[in-house]
Amino acid sequence: MKVLLLTLLVSFSVHAKDEHNFSCNVDKESRVELSLLDKNTPSVSLFYKKSKFATCQYDNTPMTQMGNPRAQVNETLWHLKLKKCDYYFEDKKEKIPVVEAAMFKQSHEKRDHYFLIVKGRQPLKCKAIK
User: Fold this and answer.
1) Among candidates 121, 122, 113, 118, which has minimal Cα distance to 22?
2) Helix (H/G/I), strand (E/B), else coil: 19
3) What is the DSSP letter of 92?
4) Structure confidence at residue 4 (pLDDT)
5) Residue 96 to residue 129: CA distance in whole angstroms
6) CA dist 58 to 17, 30, 62, 74, 91, Å?
7) What number of other Cβ atoms are within 10 A of residue 129's Cβ?
8) Is 1 inside any structural domain?
9) What distance in Å separates the CA atoms of residue 117 and residue 32, rounded to the nearest whole number?
10) Burial zone of 24 (CB within 10 Å; 0-12 exposed, 13-18 middle, 19+ buried)
11) Considering the domain boundaries, does residue 128 fall inside one?
């Protein structure tokens, strides 16, 4: 019984690895990076040609649905509302136009993550940054 309990405890801690940072390519020259370190106010960095040109702060909303480890598909749906964006280069402001209400689908399994953040675009496929 002790061995079973220890095995379950170890396997849960291995699978409970929480990913906080994600990178999503918009096109060949542009990408966005999402940081979920602060669950209440996630931040998004905007990059063009490997140069960071803006940081946006979002507020987490009550519509966010956290994942359930017992479900067949364990994923969290983040519903975010734009708080503010700080642009370092005004001429790059239109390179990645962000939406007011963003949505991030975080998979807690070996599945894809998707981020709906760019105006007029389909959700971006993202990968976790280690």
Assistant:
1) 113
2) coil
3) G
4) 36
5) 20
6) 24, 20, 13, 23, 22
7) 12
8) no
9) 9
10) buried
11) no
Residue 26 covered by a domain: no
Place of tokens 């040609």: 49
Half-sphere exposure of 104 (CA within 13 A, CB side): 27
Tokens representing 23 are 């990178």
d(C-alpha 116, C-alpha 130), whole Å: 22
Residue in the block written with tokens 């370190």: 37
Cβ atoms 125, 24 nearer than 8 A:
yes
With respect to residue 49, please indicate whether it lies within any of the assigned structural domains. Answer: yes
Number of domains, the chain? 1
Mean pLDDT, contiguous 10-residue spans, the chain (130 residues): 40 54 96 96 96 96 86 87 94 92 91 94 94
Cα–Cα distance for residue pair 120/46, rounded to 1 Å: 16
Domain of residue 60 covers: 32-120
**How many residues are given for the chain?**
130
Closest CA to 33 of 108, 110, 122, 96: 96
Q: Is 35 exposed, middle or buried (0-12, 13-18, 19+ CB in 10 A)?
A: middle
